[in-house]
Amino acid sequence: MSDQMTLTSLRAPSPKRIWAPVCRALLLAAPGVTLLCFWQFASGRLIRETYVSKPTEIAWRLIDLFYTGEIWPSLRVTGEELVLSYVIGVLLGLLLGYALGRSPRAASIFEPYVMAFYGIPKIALAPLFVIWFGIGIWSKVMLAGTMVFFLVFYNVFAGVRSVDRDVVNLALVLGANERQLGRQIYLPAAAPFLLLGMRMAIPYAVIGVIVGEFTSSTAGLGLFINYASSTYDPAGVFAGIFILLAFVMGMNALANRLERKLLKWQPTSQRIASEPN
Amino acid sequence: MVISDVGFEVKRGKFVSVIGPSGCGKSTLIQMAAGLLKPSVGMVFHHDREVTSVNRTIGFVPQQAQLLPWKTMIENIEFPLLLRGMTLAERRAKAMEAIKRVDLAGFESHYPYQLSGGMQKRASIARMLVYKPDTILMDEPFGALDAQTRMVMQHDLQTMLATEGASVLFVTHDITEAVLLSDSVVVLSRRPARVIAEIPIDLPRPRDMFEPYATPGFAEAYDRVWSVFRSELNIRRAA
To answer: B77 near B122, Cβ under 8 Å?
Structure first.
């Protein structure tokens, strides 16, 4: 058949294929390692150590924090807040984004309002949230959850709205009813947008929770960092930041795997967000 | 107004092409036939029943292949059967049969982006054949294909329909295609569209899609369509 050609698996094993990942990993690590080395060198020589600490000091502090178990209660509280805010924000964002996306009439009424709320800097609400929801985990869950919600909501909304009328018409002619349209057309079409929103929401969940804890709290990693910072303990601050960094990178890796699994139907060049990981 | 005065019928088992200058409302016509658009005046009938909502008993082949990108080729072809609540085993069997008919065996688990334009089109035709509609609407299905692929597809369509016995309403702007495939060609005017001629094509089948002039009588049939069609284009040039 003259018109049939696929370019899926034209792979021949070659020495290049074996070395390429190693080279890539080295290239990826190079800037980070350079930065750490410079930091180590500069600390105490170019900048006073009490300002920036140094990588070896931070590493020892991290080992110490985990070994003595001092950090676990903070981690548990912050982890709870993160998971709760993320799950609640994603679920509500998905539900409302989908509902509003499917009903143009409701969308035309509510969209300006949602847009207006979206524009409010949520961080500025942190003190109010403490008054409304108390000093415990819920003020943080609500603050971070709101940020997650808007990101997921907007992406899902856009995804559902992006579905081509012709595709819907075709599905109708092929026999789809309303429920099948949702399950077979709108949801899969919105999936890449949902995943993009979920990925974008990861750092925002962390920011929301940490800012919430900075504002007022009785426990958590944010409080730990805040305390370290106000007692001139840069090693403690950076140790806390490195834990957050590891968390965000871990979540990102998870998001990547989820995307690869769920979006294998997209050509790689078309994926909305793909970061090396 | 897009369409003003269009009245014609497709007899059972016949292949009718509609041609007309671009933008004359051919796609609008086919969408009305499918029940996706409601004519503001006039009626569409299918098997003597008026079409008032989306017609789920017809087969539809759109301009673009419009395979669902998140489904593999075979899942796309199974799709109409899935919507009809058929079990997986039944769906697979019927889809495999349709895949063999359009000559796509071996590519079942490919996603649409991994298929060429011609293969996507074949899959889109298989998706229509899989539920064996007795009436088929095709909206410039081969317009976006390259010349060679188009000839192959026209040839294959003729072969497939020879055994299917379905009625076909085929929209195109290509006179050669219309003459080669049809039992009858309806020529539309410019917007607002009217039927300006309904020309029967009684060439023997099978017709040679690769060398149209090898079919005896093709040149005369082409001329009859072209002489009517040309008048429409001339008016436009003068205007």
So the answer is: no
Neighbours of B78 (CB within 10 A): 23
Give the chain A residue nearest B55 (alpha carbons): A173
Q: Residue-wise over B139-153: b if at least 16 C-beta within 10 A, else e?
A: bbbbeebeeebbbbb
- Strands B15-19 vs B167-172: parallel, antiparallel or unpaired: parallel
B66 closest CB neighbour out of A3, A167, A267: A167
| Cα nearest neighbour of A5 on chain B | B116
pTM of the entire predicted model: 0.82
Q: What's the CA gap between A49 and A58, in Å, rounded?
A: 12
Q: What is the pLDDT of residues A147-168, one digit of tens each?
A: 999 999 999 999 999 998 889 9
Query: Is a pLDDT exceeding 70 seen at residue A199?
Result: yes
E strand or H helix at B181, and its extent? Answer: helix B175-181
- The whole-angstrom distance between B68's CA and the closest CA on chain A is 8
Distance from CA of B116 to the nearest CA of A (A): 6
A184 vs B80: CB contact, 8 Å cut-off? no
- Segments in A120-186 forming alpha helices (H): 126-133, 137-161, 165-173, 178-180
For B46, the 3-state DSSP assignment is strand
Which pLDDT score, from 0 to 100, does residue A275 have?
A: 41
**CA pair distance A211, B192, nearest whole angstrom:** 64
B21-39 in b/e form (b: 16+ CB < 10 A) is beebbbbbbbbbbbbbbee
pLDDT of residue B237 exceeding 70:
no
Position A274 pLDDT exceeds 80: no
Contacts of A173 in chain B (CB under 8 A): 34-36, 54-56, 58, 60
Q: Which residues of A touch B131 (CB under 8 A)?
A: 175
pLDDT number for residue B204: 84
Q: What is the DSSP letter of B196?
A: E
B28 in reach of chain A (CB within 8 A): no
Q: pLDDT tens digit string along A95-152? A: 999 999 999 888 889 888 888 888 888 888 889 999 999 999 999 999 999 999 999 9
Spell out which residues of chain A touch residue B110, defining contact as CB-CB under 8 Å: 6, 8
Q: Is the predicted pLDDT of residue B123 greater than 60, yes or no?
A: yes
- Residue A255: how many other CB atoms lie within 10 Å: 20
